[in-house]
Specification:
By secondary structure, the chain is an all-alpha fold. The protein has six helices and no strands. It has a single domain, classed as lambda repressor-like DNA-binding domains (434 Repressor (Amino-terminal Domain)).
């Protein structure tokens, strides 16, 4: 299961911070962050920590704890890796 992006999206909107601004601050690709913010990609611990620091909020407020579990980053990883 991928994370519910609504908490972090709500904080960004409330603070009038664009995804592009976040991407620049974190030095990450905007499209990659967009996939996280739209719930298609599970955020890495590095991204969660950086967002937490940037927004001054605990990780648990940004993403549900189950979103931080290890696992596939992309739904199609198994197919890309040649596994069925």
């Amino acid at each position: 299961m991928f994370p519910d992006p609504q908490p972090v999206k709500a904080l960004l909107a409330e603070r009038r911070i664009s995804q592009s601004a976040v991407a620049r601050r974190l030095e990450k690709d905007r499209a990659y962050l967009g996939r996280i913010f739209n719930g298609f990609v599970r955020p890495s611990s590095e991204i969660v920590a950086a967002l937490s620091e940037l927004l001054g909020e605990p990780a648990e407020k940004l993403f549900r704890p189950d979103a931080l579990e290890r696992g596939s980053q992309f739904p199609g990883d198994a197919l890309i890796g040649g596994e069925a």
